[in-house]
Write a structure and sequence with these properties.
Layout lengths: L2 E4 L5 H10 L4 E7 L2 E8 L2 E7 L6 H7 L5 H12 L6 H7 L5 H19 L6 E6 L17 H18 L8 E4 L14 H7 L8 H8 L3 H13 L3 E4 L12 H8 L7 H10 L2
Antiparallel strand pairs: 1-5, 2-3, 2-5, 3-4, 6-7
Helix pairs in contact: 1-6, 5-6, 6-9
Length: 276
């Protein structure tokens, strides 16, 4: 018999905790408005997670993050269509296009980001069918994922998302460097991921585009940009209408008219921080 209810009355974290502690096997279907998600568990471990509104396929993600080429994915898909009986990830490994550990890391990241996004649902119908098993060829993760860490990180992100959303309404926002960084910006030490985001901020690309080009998750990019905002280094604005002219400062217009190339905004910001 299926267990049904609403996340408004029974939080996702509590449900996952019961699956983990009870070593449950089955499928969990979640529905909210036009969005739907499906999770499969085996003895309390997560094997599969997919969401209709974020349906990036494994091959697309690996190409986007530069781990394989489109040609390699196309070849693996062709082998799969020729009744190979193997999942795409297995074929990519067999062809030597990607290492097993690297593939597992990306599959795990894909599953985790899907589940973390569900923690933000304030409500939504759920249906758990105990005993339902996933077809072997449809299993995403090469290694079953523990649920306990997903719960802890998911709850933490919900709390942090609340602070981020106060400054970043959505991923269509345009981040740009401020003209006069705050005094506290001079003590910033950037991690490799922060540098990747920092290098993509140009006042033209939206947060969504930065996410796509860095290969980082929506949460990680938003969190990093939020940190830049808090440090007084970056501000975000709403995107301009397609037919609206870009604003031009008097100094910038004079430089263009005189044929003088403007220095990179990133370089100017770095120099200002160093000079503080």
């Amino acid at each position: 018999m299926a267990l049904v209810g609403n996340l408004r009355d029974f939080a996702l974290a509590d449900f996952l905790y019961l699956i983990d502690r009870g070593y449950k096997t089955g499928s969990l279907q979640l529905n909210r408005q036009s969005d739907e998600a499906m999770l499969y568990f085996d003895k309390g471990k997560l094997l599969y997670a997919a969401r209709s509104q974020r349906s990036e396929r494994l091959g697309e993600m690996l190409v986007r993050t530069g781990k394989v080429t489109p040609q390699q994915v196309a070849h693996a898909v062709q082998l799969q269509e020729n009744d190979s009986g193997h999942a795409l990830g297995v074929l990519l490994i067999e062809q030597g296009y990607i290492a097993r550990d690297e593939l597992q890391r990306h599959i795990q990241m894909q599953i985790e980001e899907t589940v973390y996004g569900l923690f933000g649902w304030p409500d939504g119908e759920f249906c758990f069918n105990a005993g339902t098993k996933l077809d072997k060829d449809d299993v995403q993760s090469l290694v079953p994922l523990g649920v306990e860490n997903l719960i802890m990180e998911g709850v933490r992100r919900v709390d942090e998302w609340g602070r981020i959303k106060d400054h970043i309404a959505n991923t269509d926002m345009l981040p740009r460097f401020v003209d006069q960084p705050h005094e506290k910006a001079k003590s910033i030490n950037l991690t490799p991921d922060e540098w990747r985001v920092f290098a993509r901020i140009n006042g033209k690309d939206s947060i969504k585009e930065i996410i796509s080009r860095t290969g980082l998750s929506e949460f990680d990019v938003s969190r990093i940009i939020y940190g830049f905002i808090a440090a007084g280094l970056v501000e975000v604005t709403r995107p301009r209408p397609a037919n609206a002219p870009a604003p031009t400062t008097r100094a910038g217009a004079a430089a263009v008219a005189a044929g003088i190339p403007k220095r990179s905004l990133v370089s100017r910001i770095i120099n200002r921080i160093r000079g503080m």
